[in-house]
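Q: Hi! Curious about what Tautomerase family protein looks like structurally. Here's the sequence.
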Amino acid sequence: MPFISVRILEKRLNPESEQKLIASLTDAVVETFGAEVREHVWITLEPTPEHRWGIAGKPVGQPPNDPA
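A: Let's find out. The predicted structure is below.
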């Protein structure tokens, strides 16, 4: 059973984008492995708030020149 876990910034998701992402990822797996796997594809979306996602030692939502 293919299992795909997506970690993404919370603000990037809404009901429409969630549904589209799940459908697109499922379609990609089906295209690769065949239609018989569709019912066995699991997708999880793990939204993360900006203050809990860090890049280059700073939270994503923090301005680049902010020393905090």
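A: A fun detail: The mean pLDDT is 92.
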